[in-house]
């Protein structure tokens, strides 16, 4: 191409610089200054911002609520990974291996909650759990198990597990499609060979489908873990606000409460650093454990 | 092929969980529509059945008592401005990273892509004060800028992979015809990657329309509320006023545009999200 160096660099600058400046201002700078703020005691106005070194981090280690928020987050991670993967895998296999005519219909329906707003999902499920008019308690009454009916989201033991179902409900479609994509790439001849060798459907699933689908399974699990650790607080905020009595606070909702409700911005930033460190560490560790030799038959 | 009795039963049986899950997905959504036509008394009397009459009062209440019209408008503006801004910022960068040779292009790409994995919640505290200094706090245009930048990594990521499928010879031919690089970008690359542009834009638009948490932090006065915030507000009011019907009506208003987009672009949305997750 006939084009002087100067022109090329001008064009590059035109393409890259405005975007990068905005990205730096609205993404990079806030992340790094969040790190910086975590060393200050700061209630929002510039006059009372005092450097306290690792003071916030020491407070973090002595804050009795923090371990609970971490446990709650990982409880959601584990239950969501299991719930979503088992159901998504089941539906993916059912819709691909067994010839079901109306399979596209199920795909379209199951995916829809993935693009619903968390606010809508949260409020909808708050109603489903509503103690007096909700579907769950009415259903239990209907089958004669009134004794199990409870104010689900108002119960300290049951509030957190009650948040799992809406998250699974809203998440399955995407992962089902990911797995379907993987399964349809598996060569049919493997199944034919397995059939000839006398493998049962169950054996075929564990010996053929799972190993060949491993890349997709791994990505799906990582994706669930990342999105949960980085975003579980949204559903918590909408459905319980962290209550009752902090029983559902996760790291992010506790950060929101500390920073934007109680105006401990420095401490909020420290919680943010903790979220960053924990989520990066978790991803690294998971990637290490899910490393598997690539299977080639 | 002969089918054993077990296989036939198995095939019929497999439909049971599929149908149950279909009901689990559709019924709550369906129920939300039904509830939006019921009076409060009727919601308590008959929470899960059909409404007795088609009653539009809840929509009128949402519009007049809760001023939801202005929230719909705010959400609309934020969505459109955010989506257009994302494209304006992402297309040139995606093109330069994919097609213009320069040192560091790989690093720049990695930087953008790794931002997808970083929990932005840490950045929201400084962002709050930054927006305040820029007089963009409690401002829907400020929110639109924040939204646009937040979706940049994903958008750049999807667009680079689209642009990489465009044959290089087309660009070269256009350059020989005397088109400047700006012209190539605007008249060759943009139209040829239109399919990818449409896909990411629909996904970004849905994302912006639905977004709740950043709006909660960065908007304060009720006349600036987006739909998600207005719904949250009506929901917390309803604890005291029991205006459940109005709440349902506002949920319906929020979800109908998403349903329409999904009905038209179902394939694009599903493929785009799956691809984005797999390659990300």
Give a quick account of the main beta sheet of chain A: strands, pairing sense, barrel closure: 2 strands, antiparallel
Q: Roughly how much helix do the residues of chain A carry, as a percent range?
A: over 70%
Unreliable sequence segments of chain B: none
What is the radius of gyration of chain A?
A: 24 Å
- The share of residues in helices of chain B is over 70%
The value of Rg of chain B in angstroms is: 24 Å
Number of strands of chain B: 0
Pfam families (chain B): BPD_transp_1
InterPro entries (chain B): BP-dep_ABC_trans_perm, MetI-like, MetI-like_sf
Keywords (chain B): Cell membrane, Membrane, Transmembrane, Transmembrane helix, Transport
GO biological process, one term (chain B): transmembrane transport
Describe this structure in words.
The complex is a heterodimer of chains A (297) and B (280). Chain A is mainly α and 297 residues long. Chain A has eleven helices and two strands. Chain A has helices at residues 5-37, 55-62, 65-97, 103-111, 118-128, 135-142, 159-184, 188-196, 201-239, 251-261, 265-289, and strands at 40-42, 49-51. A two-stranded antiparallel sheet of chain A has the order 1-2. In chain A, helix 1 packs across helix 11, helix 2 (55-62) crosses helix 11 and helix 4 crosses helix 7 (159-184). In chain A, 40% of the residues are buried. Chain B is mostly helical and 280 residues long. Chain B has two domains: 5-57, no CATH class; 66-279, MetI-like fold (Orthogonal Bundle). In chain B, 78% of the residues lie in helices and 0% in strands. Chain B has 13 helices and no strands. Chain B has helices spanning 5-35, 40-45, 57-64, 68-99, 105-114, 121-133, 140-163, 168-176, 181-192, 194-210, 213-218, 227-241, 244-279. The longest helix of chain B is centred in the C-terminal third of the chain and has 36 residues, at 244-279. Chain B starts with a helix and ends with a helix. The mean pLDDT of chain B is 88. The interface between A and B is large, with 93 and 81 residues.
């Amino acid at each position: 191409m006939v084009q002087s160096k100067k022109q090329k660099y001008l064009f590059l600058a035109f393409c890259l610089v405005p975007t990068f400046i905005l990205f730096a201002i609205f993404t990079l700078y806030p992340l790094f200054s969040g790190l910086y703020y975590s060393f200050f005691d700061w209630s929002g106005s510039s006059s009372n911002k005092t450097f306290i070194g690792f003071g916030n981090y020491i407070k973090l280690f002595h804050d009795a609520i923090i371990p609970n928020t971490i446990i709650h987050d990982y409880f959601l991670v584990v239950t969501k990974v299991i719930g979503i993967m088992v159901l998504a895998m089941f539906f993916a296999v059912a819709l691909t291996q067994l010839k079901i005519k109306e399979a596209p219909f199920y795909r379209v329906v199951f995916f829809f909650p993935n693009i619903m707003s968390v606010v809508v999902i949260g409020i909808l499920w708050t109603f489903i759990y509503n103690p007096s008019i909700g579907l769950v308690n009415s259903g239990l009454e209907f089958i004669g198990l009134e004794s199990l009916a409870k104010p689900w989201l108002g119960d300290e033991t049951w509030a957190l597990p009650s948040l799992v179902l809406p998250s699974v409900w809203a998440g399955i479609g995407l992962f089902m499609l990911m797995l379907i994509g993987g399964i349809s790439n598996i060569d049919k001849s493997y199944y034919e060979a397995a059939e000839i060798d006398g493998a049962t459907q169950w054996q075929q699933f564990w010996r053929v489908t799972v190993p060949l689908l491993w890349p997709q399974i791994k990505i799906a699990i990582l994706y669930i873990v990342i999105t949960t650790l980085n975003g579980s607080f949204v559903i918590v905020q909408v459905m319980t606000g962290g209550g009752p009595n902090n029983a559902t606070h996760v790291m992010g909702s506790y950060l929101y409460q500390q920073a934007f409700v109680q105006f401990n911005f420095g401490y909020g930033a420290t919680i943010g650093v903790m979220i960053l460190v924990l989520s990066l560490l978790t991803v690294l560790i998971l990637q290490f454990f899910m490393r598997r030799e690539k299977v080639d038959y | 092929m002969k089918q054993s009795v077990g296989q036939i039963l198995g095939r019929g049986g497999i439909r049971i969980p599929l149908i149950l899950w279909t009901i689990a997905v559709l019924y709550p959504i369906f129920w939300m529509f039904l509830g939006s036509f019921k009076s409060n008394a009727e919601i308590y009397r008959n929470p899960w059945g059909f409404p007795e009459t088609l009653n539009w009062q809840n929509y009128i209440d949402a519009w007049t008592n809760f001023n939801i019209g202005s929230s719909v408008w705010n959400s609309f503006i934020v969505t459109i401005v955010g989506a257009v801004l994302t494209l304006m910022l992402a297309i040139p960068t995606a093109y330069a990273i994919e097609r213009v040779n320069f040192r560091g292009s790989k690093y720049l790409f990695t930087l953008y892509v790794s931002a997808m994995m970083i929990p932005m919640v840490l950045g929201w505290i400084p962002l709050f004060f930054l927006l305040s200094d820029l007089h963009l706090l409690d401002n829907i245009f400020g929110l639109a800028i924040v939204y646009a930048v937040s979706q940049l990594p994903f958008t750049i990521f999807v667009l680079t992979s689209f642009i990489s499928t465009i044959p290089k010879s087309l660009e070269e031919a256009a350059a020989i015809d005397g088109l400047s690089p700006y012209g190539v970008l605007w008249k060759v690359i943009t139209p040829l990657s239109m399919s990818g542009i449409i896909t990411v834009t629909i996904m970004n638009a849905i994302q912006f329309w639905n977004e709740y948490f950043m709006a909660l932090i960065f908007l304060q006065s009720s006349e600036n509320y987006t739909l998600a915030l207005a719904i949250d507000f009506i929901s917390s009011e309803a604890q005291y006023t029991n205006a459940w019907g109005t709440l349902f009506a506002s949920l319906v208003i929020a979800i109908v545009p998403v349903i329409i987009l999904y009905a038209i672009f179902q394939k694009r949305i599903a493929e785009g999200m799956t691809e984005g997750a797999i390659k990300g």
